[in-house]
Amino acid sequence: MKQAELLNNLKKVAAHEITPQQAAEKLSEIDFTELNYAKIDTARKKRTGYPEVIYGAGKTPEQISGIATALKKQGQPVLVTRVTPEKATKVQEKVSDLNYNSTAQVMIWEPQPATHIGEIAIVTAGTSDIQVAEEAAVTAELFGNQVTRIYDVGVAGIQRLFAKLNVIRQAKVIIVIAGMEGALVSVVGGLVDQPVIAVPTSIGYGSNLNGMTPLLGMLNSCSAGISVVNIDNGFGAAYNASMINHLASKEAAR
Questions:
Q1: Residues 218 and 248 in one domain
Q2: DSSP string covering 203-244
Q3: Which ranges carry the PurE domain (predicted)?
Q4: Cα-only R_g, the chain
Q5: pLDDT digits (tens, 9 = 90+) for 55-72
Q6: CB 3.0–4.6 Å: which of 38, 94, 205, 233 could bond 229 by disulfide?
Q7: In whole angstroms, what is the distance from residue 168 CA to residue 149 CA?
Q8: Residue range of the domain that includes 60
Q9: Final residue in a domain of this structure, among 56, 83, 113
């Protein structure tokens, strides 16, 4: 918080231009922690209900450690995505209580265990999609959602999907993750009455085009009620699913 901004808000309160409550809200909205390489949005959780998340790719272990430490000082949960095992080891040398999930390639720290509500089902077409699925699962759990994992139920052996339909239909939101041609999303979308969030993955042979083929297939799905996030974006799918799940729980509690 810059001193000039603080002084300006105090003057507005003194002049009765804004109330003390409005001033407090303004202060929380512009609050951030200044590092020489990053500005940590410590007010994000107050505004949106979700804390700042660290995208680990392209950041050095020292930068990740500094940002994570700043978030911890605020008592906020820490989630670092896209962290290689080698980088995670170096980060843990500086912040030892950051836990690393090697499958999801994420690091997490929770000030206290989250209360899990509702249910998000995470469904993958193949075992090769599990890294993206685990990024989604760990993110959703950190954000306070109950997660059910249903892996390797792709259309090449569609009986596997039908065997799990009762479990999938119990969820409030369904995340479907698929590479190759991405057909699983349309099938699931035509069998359930919950919102479906589709995640195309870069898994597949040459004409998969690093995920472009399933991305376009999902965008053109004939099943209604499907939204699509970017290629390999398990985090984004989980964030969206968490917002839907918490909104549904709030409505049910009224």
A1: yes
A2: -SSGGGGGGHHHHHHHHT-SSSSEEE--TT-HHHHHHHHHHH
A3: 118-250
A4: 21
A5: 999 999 999 999 999 888
A6: 233
A7: 9
A8: 33-113
A9: 113
170 and 60 within one domain: no
| Any domain includes 17 | no
Which of 184, 200, 195, 247 shows the shortest CA–CA distance to 224?
Answer: 195
Does residue 142 fall inside a structural domain? yes
Q: Which pLDDT tens digit goes with each residue over 232-246?
A: 999 999 999 999 998
- The torsion defined by the Cα of 23, 24, 26 and 31, in degrees rounded to 10, comes to 140
> What DSSP element (H or E) covers 101?
strand 99-101
What is the spatial distance between Cα 111 and Cα 73, in angstroms, rounded to a whole number?
10
Examine the domain organization and report whether 57 and 137 are in the same domain.
no
Alpha-helical regions (H) of the chain: 3-14, 20-29, 44-48, 61-73, 85-94, 130-142, 159-163, 165-168, 184-189, 212-219, 234-253
Task: Compute CA 41 distance to the chain's CA centroid, rounded to the nearest angstrom.
Answer: 17
Place of tokens 């999303």: 185
